[in-house]
Amino acid sequence: xxxxxxxxxxxxxLGEHAHYAHGYYTYPKLEGEINNIxxxxxxxxxxxxxxxxxxxxxxxxxxxxxxxxxRLYGLAYPMGARMMSGNSKLHEQFEKEVADYVDxxxxxxxxYGYQGMLSIIDSLVxxxxxxxYDAESHACIIDGMRLHQGKRFVFKHNDIEDxxxxxxxxxxxxxxxxxxxxxxTEGVFGMRGDQGKLKEIAALKKQFNFTMxxxxxxxxxxxxxxxxxxxxxxxxxxxxDFYFGTFAKSFAGIGAFVASTKEAIMFLKYxxxxxxxxxxxxxxxxxxxxKRLELMxxxxxxxxxLWEITHALQKGLTSAGFNIGNTNSPVTPVYLNGTIxxxxxxxxxxxxxxxxxxxxxxxxxxxxxxIILRLIPTAVHTFEDVERTIDVxxxxxxxxxxxxxxxxxxxxx
Length: 413
What we know:
413 residues, Aspartate Aminotransferase, domain 2
């Protein structure tokens, strides 16, 4: 059997549903202006699936900056990787400004978030070192650890006692290999919305010798008094050794950054393979990122509106008896019980009969029998959107309990 024959018969737990899911439940096409109302399948839908937390995707100043950056520089500039020929004053300006924003000495602007996190891990540890990480870490963290040739230990999600046990195991191992320990967690976990226990983990530094790397993709821009992230929110930003943020959420763009000490950032600039051997972030993205960062710093009303909508949505759902778990961020999961077939029928009902679009999460991402409908509130949603959504969710819950979603039809995109 060759590779082509093998993949034909092994699509995976998600791919096996592609014959009816593709283009509708998976790989759907949302069209129109990025907003609370967009078009899907030819009809307008109320959308709760976009990580456009601060509403910057279509903010007029952002659109103007994106257009101006493209007009001034085009999409090709700068040509080459940063180390060779792809550096610019604007890249360095952003690094200085974002480092100041997240209260770090220096920062490194990255061309992409997923590969950035993967490459940070790869560059920081060698085969003698040990990684300790949260069980619900994002796929980019997991893939980064796949490159690691040394030992790694996982602790139960946000379980500090188990974290201590794994750190002890890591210390025992590191003492034999003469290596160091890297602990990785997240500021906000994007599926369930709960914050990582950064304060409690940071306190463990008094007992264990480890370096702390935090992926705050869902926290930057949203969390903390100034939006500087979950470290600011919990008062432990100074204890985070490497702080990572992506542009794919609050920044509403492409790219990422990592912030740390000047010495550590210089090390990353000369050792991160995803940056040394790949083209620099195009100038229009950098030009636009500077404007986005400016708005984060100078327009707290965007963050305030996000949290007003978040609180209204989460309070309304819990008052109506829905289980939203332990979220303490804008990410709002609604937990229901049902099969994959029921989940697909339920989502079809939401989209076709109620004109409401949200993301569905089922097995293997969550245990069998569980359905998560993940809602992402933003600064462009309205209180009317919230009221309408809660009313719709009440109706679909009645239908689910009455087994009206047991039969589902295959959908053509």
